[in-house]
């Protein structure tokens, strides 16, 4: 029998139907990918209800997944169904209110889509509300649950490559929307260290003057001494996020949206200079990122631990994006944390 009841707020693409696109267009993405399809793979949970303001999405959700309990008002769903876990797949501008309502209703674990919010003040409120209620808050920067990225991170954590020096990430995107993935995975491969300061160069002065999401490039200085570079402007024809991790004794490079990894180690032991290419030890247990995320939520409920990508991590990605834009505006280094919590970046997601 299922142990955890799941509700879903927002029944559109990422919640329900995106796997149809993935099958046709994104060969590097492991399935299942949508929230509901991922829950269906985990026997310890049961999707019991969904909520959406649009009647056609509620009907399509029931037809696709056989879930009869659908609601126009998510507060009614929370009260009637009392879910243990809720996925919040709303538009970004609606996410803060929904997450806080889940926390107030006693939901034990909340899986919010990225970006976490539009403003830093909203993100602060979400994190504080979940902490006050003892609710787990995870944010869908999914590469932290991707088995290939996890294996790469393990190799560095185990000391095989030495100390982290520099992390490079590339993906043509808006800094808040898919930039949440890019910024977060660079920070994660940097040991999940905080960022002390940034320098940013946005796509144009006009874009930087607006609060709308925008593309740009930037330099990050981490609290552990590592540095990072992100490129979210034109990246040529790369297929998704690419990452390179440079360490004192080797380097890792993930291409093809993280499914093809190169491992280079120092060749000094063989009397050579430079690096020699080694076999990358592939993950031995392959589940999709979002299936791993569901199992991680269960672990968090049962063991009282933080999720791989917490609300604080989601907030950090947003804050770094805003700081990079602020650096362009001021033509200056920007120190974190940002004092002005009213700053925002409006992602259309």
Secondary structure tally: strands? 15
Overall 3D shape = globular
User: How does the helix and strand content classify structurally?
Assistant: alpha/beta
Beta-strand content: 15-25%
Tell me the name of the CATH homologous superfamily of the largest domain. NAD(P)-binding Rossmann-like Domain
What letter string, H or E per element, gives the SSE order? EHHEHEHEHEHEHEHEHEEEEEEHHE
Largest sheet: spatial strand order: 14-13-12-11-7-10-9-8-15
Molecular structure report:
The protein folds into 2 domains: 160 residues, NAD(P)-binding Rossmann-like Domain (Rossmann fold); 155 residues, 2-Layer Sandwich (Dihydrodipicolinate Reductase, domain 2), CATH 3.30.360. A hairpin with a 4-residue loop joins strand 12 and strand 13. The chain has 11 helices and 15 strands. The strands form 2 sheets. The chain has a 9-stranded mixed β-sheet. The protein has a 6-stranded parallel β-sheet with strand order 3-2-1-4-5-6, with helices on both faces. The chain is of the alpha/beta class and 349 residues long. The chain starts with a strand and ends in a 14-residue tail after the last strand. The radius of gyration is 20 Å and the shape is globular. The longest helix is centred in the C-terminal third of the chain and has 20 residues. The relative contact order is 0.17.
């Amino acid at each position: 029998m299922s142990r955890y009841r799941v509700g879903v707020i927002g029944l559109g693409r990422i919640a329900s139907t995106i796997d149809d696109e993935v099958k046709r267009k994104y060969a590097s993405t492991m399935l299942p990918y949508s929230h509901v399809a991922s829950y269906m793979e985990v026997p310890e949970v049961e999707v019991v209800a969904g909520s959406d303001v649009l009647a056609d999405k509620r009907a399509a959700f029931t037809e696709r997944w056989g879930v009869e309990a659908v609601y126009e008002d998510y507060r009614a769903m929370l009260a009637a169904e009392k879910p243990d876990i809720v996925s919040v797949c709303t538009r970004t501008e609606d996410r803060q209110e929904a997450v806080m309502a889940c926390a107030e209703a006693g939901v034990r674990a909340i899986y919010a889509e990225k970006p976490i919010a539009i403003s830093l003040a909203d993100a602060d409120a979400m994190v504080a509300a979940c902490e006050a209620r003892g609710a787990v808050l995870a944010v869908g920067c999914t590469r932290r649950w991707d088995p290939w990225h996890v294996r790469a991170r393990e190799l560095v954590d185990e000391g095989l490559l030495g100390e982290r020096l520099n992390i490079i990430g590339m993906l043509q995107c808006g800094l808040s929307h898919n930039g949440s993935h890019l910024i977060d995975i660079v920070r994660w491969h940097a040991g999940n260290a905080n960022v002390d300061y940034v320098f940013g160069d946005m796509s144009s002065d006009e874009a930087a003057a607006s609060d709308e999401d925008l593309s740009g490039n930037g330099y990050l200085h981490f609290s552990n001494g590592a540095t990072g570079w992100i490129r979210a402007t034109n990246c040529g024809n790369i297929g998704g996020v690419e990452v390179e991790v440079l360490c004192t004794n080797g380097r890792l490079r993930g291409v093809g949206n993280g499914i093809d990894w190169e491992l280079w180690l120092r060749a000094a032991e063989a009397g050579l200079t430079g690096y020699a290419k080694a076999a990358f030890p592939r993950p031995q247990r392959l589940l999709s990122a979002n299936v791993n995320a569901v199992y991680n939520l269960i672990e968090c409920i049962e063991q009282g631990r933080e999720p791989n990508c917490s609300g604080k991590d989601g907030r950090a990605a947003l804050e770094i994006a805003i700081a990079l834009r602020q650096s362009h505006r001021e033509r200056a280094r920007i120190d974190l944390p940002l004092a002005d919590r009213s700053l925002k970046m409006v992602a259309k997601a």
